[in-house]
Amino acid sequence: MKTPRWIAVAAVLALSGVAGAQERALNPKVSEIVDAVSEARVQGIIEKLVSFGTRNTMSAQDDPARGVGAARQWIFEQLKSYSPRLEVRFDKWKVKKQGQRIFKDVDLWNVVAVLPGKTTPDAQILITAHYDTLNLSSRPAADAPAPPVGEALQSNWEKNADLPAPGACDDGSGIAAVMELARVMSRYEFDKTLVFIAFAGEEQGLIGSTLEASKAKKEAAGVEAVLNNDIIGTDRSDDGRIGNTAVNVYTDDAIDSPSQQLGRFIREIGERYVPSMKVNMQFMQDRLGRGGDHTPFQLEGFAAVRFSTPFESYANQHTATDTLANMSVPFTANIAKVNAAVAATLALAPKAPLVTAAPRGGAAATPAPGAPPRPLTPTIARGRSRYDAALRWRYAGPDSNVKGYAIVIRSTTAPDWEREIYVGKVNEYTLKDVSIDDARFGVKAIGPDGAESLVTPYLYPQRKKAEIQVVE
Ligand SMILES: [Zn+2]
Predict the structure, then answer these.
(1) Which of 381, 353, 349 lies closest to 456, judged by CA?
(2) Which of 348, 377, 395 is a domain's end point?
């Protein structure tokens, strides 16, 4: 196979010493945070969560020891106890009776803990999981005659609401990761804001995350990344497959989407700091036909992914046997460490650069109400020779926290970036004799201490179907 020209060019550049090795060094602060994640703490959190009997969103709201109300109050108080710098709150909704799963009006509270950023607090990294659980025991057997539409099924959901639903793996494991990271990370300061969220209503149809994501959208929150953890506990599936050295990271199905870019970042940074763990990027939204709390954030336009085990136990999931004995605490702790490395690096890094030209005329260029916004085209071109790759980018805001930039390149069918060229603190760079027609390009910003931003890819808006007027 003929080697694409850009590989040869990039190799020459790498040899000449412009490729940045410095940013691949471990940041001691990030390593310290990763090391501080405690298996004993993770286990303690899951044990306590299981002790509430059930955390079903439709279970008791006011029993001090059992049910969803007691569980959320405990999570709230724990988060508050970790650090006075953590701003802990409930985001509360009263959700109206609808469908079979929400068979009565119900109080739905997400628990939110905010660690405000120092220099760019508008940029937020979310670390999330759901604290509610489910026991589907009253589900009719697969061979049972179909119940009359509506009532019979609804009564099953009502019965399910108070059954024992320990939810150690689904999703006690995810909540343990969120809470342990809140404890460890609240001892440090970051440039960006970290937000730790425990959702309710996941098992009723992603209710808590849908409400939280639309709130973030409405408030125009600068959510840069959502790291959702759901079912990160089991390391053996019912067919006997075992593995505790890999985690699936579900992004979405669209090539070079913000969520896929986040997935690549997780593989790069996660494997760098937790070499015992392999990050398997999955370019699909979730496990086939199933859902998770990252998706509502994607639907609002945010970069969001789901961490999940490659080894689900369907026999225990959504039953009374989803217990600590049927999952692995060290596996959960390792996935929490991957989250810690990623969140800490992102929160210390500059924002991702912008690769589209600023709209001409500034605010005056805002389209009239009702008119579709004009898509911004990326600032990549063929240069004066028409056979080079000429890239430009800009930084949103003061770039005092940027040490320099790196261009990344890959062939159009490669899953991940293949070459990285550090170009210093400039806002344009031309790769001589590199075609922009058989490779994909991106750029990232690197901070003074080596923390790197997400990559911003150069993407052309999709061509729209043309309406052709014909005479006959
Ligand atoms: Zn779940």
Answers:
(1) 353
(2) 348
- Residue 231 Cα to ligand 1 midpoint, Å, equals 6
Q: Kindly give the distance from the C-alpha atom of residue 55 to the centroid of ligand 1, in angstroms, as a whole number.
A: 12
Calpha distance 244→311 (Å, rounded):
9
Cα–ligand 1 centroid distance for 266 (angstroms): 21
pLDDT tens for each residue of 328-354: 999 999 999 999 999 999 999 999 999
CA 388 to chain centre: 35
Assign residue 262 the CATH number of its domain.
3.40.630.10
Distance spanning both ends of the chain, measured CA to CA? 49
The rounded percent of the chain whose pLDDT value lies above 70 is: 88
Q: Is residue 472 part of a domain?
A: no
| β-strands 278-282, 246-250 pairing | parallel
Provide the residue range defining the domain that includes 95. 37-348
pLDDT of residue 15: 38
Band of pLDDT at residue 111, cut at 50, 70 and 90: very high
Q: Which of 348, 377, 409 is the last residue of a domain?
A: 348
**Measured in angstroms, how far is the CA atom of residue 411 from the centroid of ligand 1?**
36
263 alpha carbon to ligand 1 midpoint, in Å?
A: 20
| More confidently predicted of 373 and 329 | 329
